[in-house]
Design brief:
Belongs to the troponin I family. Pfam families: Troponin. One of its GO terms (molecular function) is troponin T binding. With about 180 residues, the chain is an all-alpha fold. About 75% of the residues lie in helices and about 0% in strands. It has 6 helices and no strands.
């Protein structure tokens, strides 16, 4: 028992050690991933968002605003075009799935309930008025007669238990009991 216990402890210690090593590796990988994302973000911002030069004169400010408005309008037009394309493709997809559904001829199945039916009712529902065969299973069973045993005969012959008790009660009943025993 002691050997097995030491073995189990060694296995759990090994598992815990491996688990801690895996967690350390995962932590370093997460740090690397975070630093990689940060450098990607900086490079993307440097590429797509040049540093903003704040103009000194009013004319330069108006020119900058005009440029920004044109860029915003272009982005909004592109966004609108994309939304229209998505709506159009989703409508087309919906129409095609409806056509496919119609071609298959499948309909949504209603949730079915369990209904108790006799075999006759089932055949009548399936075959309609053609159904003439009676499926009464009880009538097809074999009849088996019980053999009368002696105990059953005795029980039948005894009759009502109350009469038996009345006969045995009182002095006369005891007298009959003694007479029947001897």
């Amino acid at each position: 028992m002691g050997d097995k216990e030491k073995h189990d402890r060694a296995i759990t210690a090994r598992r815990q050690h491996l688990k801690s090593i895996m967690l350390q590796i995962a932590a370093t990988e997460l740090q690397k991933e975070e630093s990689r994302r940060e450098t990607e973000k900086e490079s993307y911002l440097a590429e797509h968002c040049p540093p903003l030069h704040i103009p000194s004169s009013m004319a330069e400010v108006q020119e900058l605003c005009h440029q920004l408005h044109t860029k915003i309008n272009a982005a909004e037009e592109e966004k609108y075009d994309m939304e229209v394309k998505v709506q159009k493709s989703s409508k087309e997809l919906e129409d095609l799935s409806q056509k496919l559904f119609d071609l298959r001829g499948k309909f949504k199945r209603p949730p079915l309930r369990r209904v108790r039916m006799s075999a006759d009712a089932m055949l009548k529902a399936l075959l309609g008025s053609k159904h003439k065969v009676c499926m009464d299973l009880r009538s097809n069973l074999k009849q088996v007669k019980k053999e009368d045993t002696e105990k059953e005969r005795d029980l039948r012959d005894v009759g009502d238990w109350r009469k038996n008790i009345e006969e045995k009660s009182g002095m006369e009943g005891r007298k009959k009991m003694f007479e029947s025993e001897s």
